[in-house]
């Protein structure tokens, strides 16, 4: 029997709530039973891989954000926001982060 990871349900719920969607609306969008969808968010069961991909697409949830996540919501939120940026915008953000780290290291 596969182990159930409660991080997945927590992440799905968090992203759904940030979009202002109810469980009923998500279940309808995904064309799944409301009880089954609720069980996924409560970590009573895992979604199939294909359903996981559909959920990620509906919520604009980076699969990497889940696969490489820690319990740090800030990192997950940054990853989610970066997925909405253009390549040029990502480059600018990277340059700013590198400058910030360089300046931080020089001050310590």
UniProtKB/TrEMBL annotation:
Keywords: DNA-binding. Residues 12-66 form the HTH cro/C1-type domain. One of its GO terms (molecular function) is DNA binding. GO terms for cellular component: cytosol. It holds the Pfam family HTH_3. This is Helix-turn-helix transcriptional regulator. It comes from Mediterraneibacter gnavus (Ruminococcus gnavus).
């Amino acid at each position: 029997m596969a182990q159930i990871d409660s991080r997945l349900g927590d992440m799905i719920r968090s992203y759904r709530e940030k979009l202002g969607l109810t469980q009923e609306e998500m279940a309808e969008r995904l064309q799944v039973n409301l009880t089954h969808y609720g069980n996924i968010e409560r970590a009573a069961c895992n979604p199939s891989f294909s359903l996981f991909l559909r959920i990620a697409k509906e919520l604009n949830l980076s699969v990497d954000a889940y696969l490489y996540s820690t319990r740090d919501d800030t990192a997950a939120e940054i990853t989610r926001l970066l997925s909405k940026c253009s390549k040029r915008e990502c480059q600018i953000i990277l340059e700013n982060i590198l400058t910030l780290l360089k300046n931080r290291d020089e001050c310590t």
